[in-house]
Write a structure and sequence with these properties.
Length: 175
C-alpha cells in the first residue's frame, strides 16, 4: 500500500499548489511545458515545496521517457545505464528526461558526467536541490541549466492541500 502522500501526489499542473510565480501562463517554464520544448533545469527550494512532484508532472506532460536518479543512492554507474537507455529511446524518436534528486550531493567530477549528454541533447536534465546551486554545482554544468527557485508554500496553499487530502480520504475537520 502506498503512503498517503504518494497517493495524493498531483499528476497534472492543475492539481499542483504553489509556485504560481513559475507556472503562470506567461512564465517561460510554463510556456516550455505547454509547447513541449523542455530545457535542462534546476529546481531549487526548501524541502516540501514540490520539486520532485513538479519534475514528475513536467516529465508526464512532455512526450518522452522519464528516468530518475538520487544523488544519495546513485553514481556514475547508474548514469551510464541511463545514458545507454536514453540512446535506445533516441533511436525511436523519444527524448529522455532525467530527474536527479539532491543533485548537489554529486561531487564535481560526477556532475561533469552530465555535460556531454546535455550538450548533445541526449538527455534533458531536471535536478532538484535544497542548496544554492551557485555554490554546490560546478560552473560548467550550471551554465547549461536554467535555475528556478521554488518558494515555501503559503498558509493558504497548505490549507488547499489539506482540504484535498481530507476530501480524498472522505474526512472532515470540525472546529
Amino acid at each position: 500500500m502506498k503512503p498517503l502522500a504518494e497517493n495524493l501526489r498531483p499528476q497534472v499542473l492543475d492539481d499542483f499548489f504553489g509556485q504560481s510565480h513559475l507556472l503562470s501562463d506567461n512564465h517561460p517554464l510554463k510556456q516550455a511545458i505547454d509547447r513541449q520544448q523542455l530545457h535542462s533545469m534546476i529546481l531549487w527550494g526548501p524541502s516540501g515545496t514540490g520539486k520532485t512532484t513538479l519534475a514528475r508532472i513536467i516529465a508526464s506532460q512532455v512526450d518522452g521517457h522519464f528516468a530518475q536518479m538520487s544523488a544519495v543512492l546513485d553514481g556514475v554507474k547508474e548514469l551510464r545505464a541511463v545514458v545507454e537507455n536514453a540512446k535506445k529511446f533516441q533511436n525511436i524518436g523519444q527524448k529522455t528526461i532525467l530527474f536527479v534528486d539532491e543533485i548537489h550531493r554529486f561531487n564535481k567530477a560526477q556532475q561533469d558526467g552530465f555535460l556531454p549528454h546535455i550538450e548533445s541533447g541526449l538527455i534533458t536534465l531536471i535536478g532538484a536541490t535544497t542548496e544554492n546551486p551557485s555554490f554546490e554545482l560546478n560552473r560548467a554544468l550550471l551554465s547549461r541549466l536554467s535555475v528556478y527557485v521554488l518558494n515555501p508554500l503559503s498558509a493558504q496553499e497548505l490549507s488547499q492541500i489539506l482540504d484535498r487530502a481530507l476530501a480524498h480520504e472522505q474526512l472532515e475537520i470540525n472546529n
